[in-house]
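Section handout 9: paired folding examples.
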Amino acid sequence: MEPGTERGHQGGMSLDRARGRACRVVQLGRSREKRLQGVGMGAGEGKKGRGPVRRGGWEGGYPEIVKENKLFEHYYQELKIVPEGEWDQFMEALREPLPATLRITGYKSHAKEILHCLKNKYFKELEDLEVDGQKVEVPQPLSWYPEELAWHTNLSRKILRKSPQLEKFHQFLVSETESGNISRQEAVSMIPPLLLNAHPHHKILDMCAAPGSKTTQLIEMLHADMNVPFPGMLWTALWRVGMPLCWVVFKFLNIFLSSGDGTMRKNIDVWKKWTTLNSLQLHGLQLRIATRGAEQLVEGGRMVYSTCSLNPIEDEAVIASLLEKSEGALELADVSSELPGLKWMPGITHWKVMTKDGQWFTEWEGVPHSRHTQIRPTMFPPKDPEKLQAMHLERCLRILPHHQNTGGFFVAVLVKKSSMPWNKRPPKLQGEPVEPREPVRSSPAHPTEGAAADPAEPESKAVSGLDDTDITERTENVENSGSKKDGVCGPPPSKKMKLFGFKEDPFVFIPEDDPLFPPIQKFYALDPSFPKMNLLTRTTEGKKRQLYMVSKELRNVLVNNSERMKVINTGIKVWCRNNSGEDFDCAFRLAQEGIYTLYPFIKSRIITVSIEDVKILLTQENPFFRKLSSETYSQAKDLAKGSIVLKYEPDPTKPDTLQCPIVLCGWRGKASIRTFVPKNERLHYLRMMGLEVSAEKKKEGTVVAQQSASSCGPPGDEASAEHGAEPAASADSSEDMIPDVSVDAAPGPSGPAPAEAALPR
């Protein structure tokens, strides 16, 4: 959810001219972006200090940005958010480029293997490395992030190009980022999910999910244990993540929205554009969103409110107003000991409000009537000293850039003790008729536009959390329920003809009596607990080519709201139709995308393989049985041709070997076995086993694995890519890396279905 407005016209300019200008701006922006793209991790290489900074590396025609803003300095010096004697360090840190930070993602066991590889291979190679006579600074872990799964570095693009070791490290980071195993994320944005303390059984609402780094972090926390196929639920604005839950009383909420003066180190435009008006305009919206979130939170649930702003108008003022109107239903949690190593300043209890032209106000009563549309009473701290002390605003956390070389940030953690006062109703007597609900024009969740809710307004007590939009949508839902198709999660009925856009194929849940499922259940010996009612496809007619899976909670949301929302993408792909499926006992093969979700339910066609077998399967095309171990052959020889599961189990007695389990989709042919694994995932597993991909060969379209001198795996292992072996898989395919096999494309909002897979003999 991004604050802002959008103009439909530009003065007297015609719509065609406006569109033309917009197109030219977009094209120019893309051209600039291509020229700015580098190979490094550094956040920027401009001049330091107070001097002017050119935007990126282009030349001519662009004004230089000076990292100075007198109004900004005057404002925060007056508010005293920076400890005495630290102002110069604070400003100097804001003028420095922000260091790059990365977070190791995915299942816990896999994340630990990546960490082991980074520390014992790539970082070791950098320890004594010098470039241009200067020692290279080795990346360091964030002291407060658990289990060393987040790191920061000041390595710049220029340095990365000057050393083979650094280039190798950079290639590793790029490949693992493409695989989704490493994520570039600003350090301070990692804090809210950690303080949310989410676990697989929790339900989470992410209310402001753009650009999505915190959302993916929350999803990973839900999926940390690969033995839990269907953890809790996350409702979010982010749909790109391939998990079975991506998306309602909620146990935990994450709210993030701000004007962003804490991002000056990476968004240098803020230096020249900053005024207090941004915060004054956002305060009301932030308070309404936070209030709505508190309404949705269950008793005992935790809500994290965070901004990348240092301004108390967006921070403590919002929290204080929310606490005051909650009348004890909410309280600030003391999280001071939850992230050891994190340096932060306690929230402030006294602040003033300043207009964009520098006029100060210390209390609402002193604000002239002409300013009432810009300044609201909820922007000021409470007057009652006892009430202010009871709020414990000092439990809020403000992160200052110079303390740990980060951006600026604010976090507050609230716990819900009881229902919000306007949600409390007297118990309805048995037999008492239900009175129709009247539309409400103003509520604490949705006060008058442009003004924050006033907790003193009497009508706020009668609000139940529903607004006009909710009532209208419910009425439309009832009216349309007669024509609703069971199990169809398609787009809502269009009231106007759409001139642009693509036709959306609906998601349809598989009926329980569908003849498609029994052969699948029998072929893979699925456990009786398998939730077949959660399977869906994206076609109402013809052959079903892809089968997807969602959690029970998400199924309920999709089915019961099919007329109220448009589903672009959901679920995780678990099966794909074979090209000649009717020739085998089952027409559907397993999809690697969803194998970790599906694996706990599969009881047949599982082959346990050794680490040497995995190397061969990932580096050779259709290796014959004789290439694999005798144990693998004995398991495969009696299986009918078709899709199989290849499972590697780590040996705890051999700590030098790969210590995370691997589950791969494969195909048992007449005399060979092959894998169906995406390119990036394949390269990821090879690296974890100490094998590397030759950059030269990769450019030529083939993947040649060779043993690294200082591998992440056991020392002394021989590479499985031997001389005279069958040709390696092609690197051109973004999915399977195997010739003649179609790409397992994720379901898009439009376009033809992907081609069916051509299987080996």
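Moving on to protein 2 of 2.
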Amino acid sequence: MFWKFDLNNTSHIDQLLDREGVTLRELMEEEDVLQECKAQNRKLLLFLSKDHCMQELVTLITEEPPADLEEKTRFKFPNIACELLTSDVALINDKLGGDESLLEKLYHFLEQEPPLNPLLASFFSKTIGNLIARKTDQVISFLRKKHNFISLVLNHIDASAMMDLLLRLISCVEPALLRMEVLNWLNEERLIQRLTELMHTGRDEERQSNASQTLCDIIRLSRDQANQLSEVTEPDPLLAVLESQENVSELLKNMFEGERTEASVVNGTQVLLTLLESRRSGAILTTVGVLEQPLGSARLHVARLVASLLQTCDLSICQEICRLNTMDLLLDLFFKYTWNNFLHLQVELCVASILNHSAHSDHQNPGLQNHEERPATGTGSQLFQHCRLVQRILDAWEENDKIQAEGGRRRGNMGHLTRIANTVVQNLEKGLAHSQINDLIKELPEDCRGRWEGFVGETLRETNRRNTVDLVSTHNLHSSSEDDDMESPFPNDLSIQQAFSDYQIQQMTANFVDQFGFNDEEFSEHDENINAAFDRIAEINFNIDANAAAFEACCKERIQQFDDCEEEEDIWDEKEINYATQIKSRSRYMLHHHPQLGIFQVNLFIEHYLCTDPGWTASFGETEVSSSSAWGGSPQQEGEGQQDTNWASFTEFQPFSR
């Protein structure tokens, strides 16, 4: 069918823009002008960014509209103009923030006598606030040149929009260095002291209330940002003034000096309560508890840098790191931040690099085999003597065991600690620097040396045994524990569970996805080739001959032959035979006693030996005709030359082939 609707997507705004002499007001009359602007309509943006259009938009948000207009339509165009200017479109932001004449026109709004129109004040604050966030450098530079900017803002503090403007200056400036410059500038302008002066009993109540609220918001914002920006070491100057004794004394003086009013007491008390609010500490709530002081990105990157430097195996770098006591600090962090695995990896790499560096040094200087002949700042002695690596490993392990014995959670750095301990043991036993490390271990206190030997011989060995997955030994252990007199082809529940466990713990290799048998193409549609899903069957290579001897031996041992049956048992008695069940049971039996065979191989063996022998036939002779066919059909009419036995002739079946 044909659609009756017009599918032309050209908007009416594009048609207006194609017309000569179109005005800004005509475009602003269109309902979708704001939507088209945010959708980056190129023709519309080029028109709006023209000088006369930008001047008109700024005029609309800074000058009172004619008073003779209807109230519901009086601020329609100023509202649309504000939305267009703050639509966060790069072309408009660049034009407004880069044209000083437009900024001067905006700034002129503050030079009016109070009170300001609250709606226009909100349009002005929103526009300037957007420029502070998007064109920070240009706008901050422009405002700092205006020496009376803070005075004008405070002069209009009765308008709540001026509060928002001050808070945007404090919270929306990025990066942190520029933000600190702005805070210092505001502090030089004595912003906090001048807001505190507005709390005097003789001031207007609206000014008192807004000044009080501004001070409370500055306190909360400054404290929150101080917690979030932990890398900034310079204190917030505005918060420092607010919390100073001089400022608090001035606040109390303004509250009670002269004629006391309820408004001054209430507003001043709000500031005092905010100052006395419990400070939010830098603790972070995580899934494993409260983190009092985060590690931070800076320290983690330094740890990565140290690990990379040590991996260069440069002697001078390693000696300098030892001289600066860097490894001792990294180990302190390793045991303090037990759940930061990013840090744990870097410390592990550092330890391994130091031990390897000691090995390379011994290899390059065979005459210096005794560590006593080395400088005191040697990397190996630094790690074992000054950093007390062995003692720290033992103490941390014992503390973790105690925590787990009390029902606690295993610490997150225990895996990396195990790897560090294994690295030490490996270098101690067969590393190139084993003699040096041996001497260092011998110099440990006697009790510590005994603890280390017991730890290596028992605890660490058992931990490594648990962490090592050996599928072959596990399966052999299971096979040897089975009862020898088990005759049933069906495995018990224990063997089923063990088989599934063996399947779960099998080791995955890099080409696991390829071996698993699936790829992206198999999940796509195969309209042209309906056999595409079965094409890979031909690629399967079953080596039947290689396991034929094992299968024959199993058959002779476990499967009872027809000619071995006892004489009193009539093998021709009618009984229900379920070949599928027998095949499945024999498959399970084969897998249970001969795990080297795969399930597909076992099934193919059974099919091959039981179903494809062309010499196997069955002749059951004649039997009485029943009223219905054994195959579900109606009986044939008796006729000459016909013999109706209602039995299938198995000799007519063709052998199965693959």
